[in-house]
Write a structure and sequence with these properties.
Elements lengths: L3 E5 L4 E4 L3 H13 L15 E5 L5 E7 L7 H12 L5 E5 L1 E2 L2 E2 L8 H4 L16 H13 L3 E8 L4 H6 L28 H16 L5 E5 L8 H17 L3 E5 L12 E4 L4 H7 L3 E4 L2 H4 L21 H5 L15 E8 L7 H8 L2 H10 L7 H9 L1 H7 L14
Helix pairs in contact: 2-4, 6-7
Bound molecules: ligand TNX.
Length: 403
């Protein structure tokens, strides 16, 4: 589906692939072999034959547009730069306590009211359905699939603030601009909750060509355990009824999963339960792949609850070693989340994302053959000039001998 053969010979450069995505990836590889900026001088490229297929079908990044909102014009350049490294999924965290970021026509106040602020009290914002579709189409041109996430039953204050009837006490919550989590929950035993979920997931499914809907499911600390399991199983059925597969943070694996559902590992061992149920997993270890963790103690942006993650730590790990029972068959792939409690601009996004995402991209694409930090850091060094040429505000990690 994504492989290619790139042949560089004296008479011609050829890219062969079974599918258009393979041609695109062959072209990205070729572009890495020529200077990043246009030149009128002849360019010499070493003759080679490269046969290349990805190890994992899921090579993702997640952007939290709920804590701080990022407009289409900020997400597009991020997509451009992810595509150069053969990242093929961009998961958008579209709702949380602090904001609801996607227009839902049958529940208009979600975005209009629930999207009207963000962490710190700024103006927030949301994507109209037309803007969202524009983003989906833009990403698809670069073989990136947008994965929409609506987080339930916790992380729902923005929805609970928008509609009184979603609350057990029929009283709308206040909008929230702080960063503590775990206080909100949908009302599990009210029929309207499931009407809400069906409407929202239905509209989201219609906007989503991909076969996945992410339903969150993390940190539902204000939902009783049995109620949580009941809700996840009902949501799974709603997602299925709309023709999609459910993805959720690994806590969902405590519920009974369909084999088509997918659990996203982040910091517990629930993902192993998903594997035992015959479901597959996406691996996003908070200690390795969380782009919102600081690089070192001096990093001004970001958090450190999962530790500091320097460029070496983000690269030197193996996805199947992160979850008990994980194999190349039941691991769909890797994803690096960027939570945005402290992230406010595209420059901030780029600083935390690059260069760590390049290591994650390699873990997702290339086989694990004696991965070596010393070898990698030399290769990564060559990307400094490229990132500069593409105007990426990357962190020039001192451990890398940047060119
Ligand atoms: C935990 S990771 C969360 C998010 C926060 C993040 C901050 C996960 C599934 N939930 O709500 O933004 O930590 O690093």
């Amino acid at each position: 589906a994504e492989g290619y053969v790139l042949t560089i010979a004296p008479e011609a450069i050829c890219i062969h692939a079974n599918r258009p995505a393979g041609i695109f990836y062959g072209a990205q590889t070729l572009l890495q072999l020529v200077p990043p900026t246009p030149t009128r001088e002849p360019i010499a490229i070493r003759a080679a034959t490269i046969r290349d297929v990805p190890r994992f079908e899921w090579r993702g990044m997640m952007l939290d547009v709920a804590r701080h909102f990022f407009k289409v014009a900020d997400v597009k350049p991020l997509i451009d730069n992810l595509a150069r490294y053969k990242i093929n999924r961009l998961h958008l965290h579209l709702s949380d306590d602090q904001g609801w970021r996607i227009e839902i026509k049958s529940w208009e106040r979600l975005a209009k009211h629930g999207g009207s602020t963000e962490v710190g009290g700024g103006a927030g914002g949301y994507y109209s359905q037309a803007e969202y579709s524009e983003l989906v189409a833009y990403a698809a041109q670069q073989y990136i699939t947008i994965i929409p996430e609506i987080d339930v039953p916790g992380h729902t204050n923005a929805a609970l603030a928008s509609y009184a009837e979603l609350n057990a006490d029929e009283t709308a919550r206040d909008l929230y601009t702080g960063t503590e989590v775990g206080f909100s929950s949908l009302s599990i035993h009210q029929a309207i909750t499931y009407k809400f979920l069906d409407d929202v997931i239905g509209e989201l499914a219609a906007l989503t060509p991909a076969p996945y809907i992410h339903i969150g499911g993390d940190e539902a600390r204000s939902t009783a355990h049995d109620a949580y399991l009941y809700l996840i199983e009902r949501v799974q059925e709603i997602v299925r009824a709309h023709g999609k597969r459910m993805i959720g943070w690994e806590e969902i694996a405590q519920a009974k999963l369909l084999p088509t559902s997918i659990a996203q590992h982040w910091c517990a061992d629930f993902a192993a339960q998903a594997i035992r149920q015959g479901a597959r997993v996406i691996v996003s270890p908070s200690t390795r792949a969380y782009l919102d963790m600081k690089y070192d103690a001096a990093t001004k942006l970001g958090l450190d609850w999962a530790g500091l993650i320097d460029v070496e730590k983000a690269y030197m790990w193996e996805p199947t070693a992160e979850v008990q029972g994980a194999t190349d068959e039941n691991v769909l792939g890797v994803e690096a989340p960027l939570w945005t409690e402290t992230i406010e601009t595209l420059d901030d996004i780029e600083y935390m994302t690059f260069p760590r995402i390049i290591g994650i991209a390699e873990i997702g694409w290339s086989p694990q053959v004696n991965r070596s930090w010393d070898e990698y850091r030399q290769r990564l060094a060559a990307h400094g000039a490229r990132l500069k040429a593409f105007d990426v505000n990357f962190f020039a990690a001192p451990q890398v001998p940047w060119e």
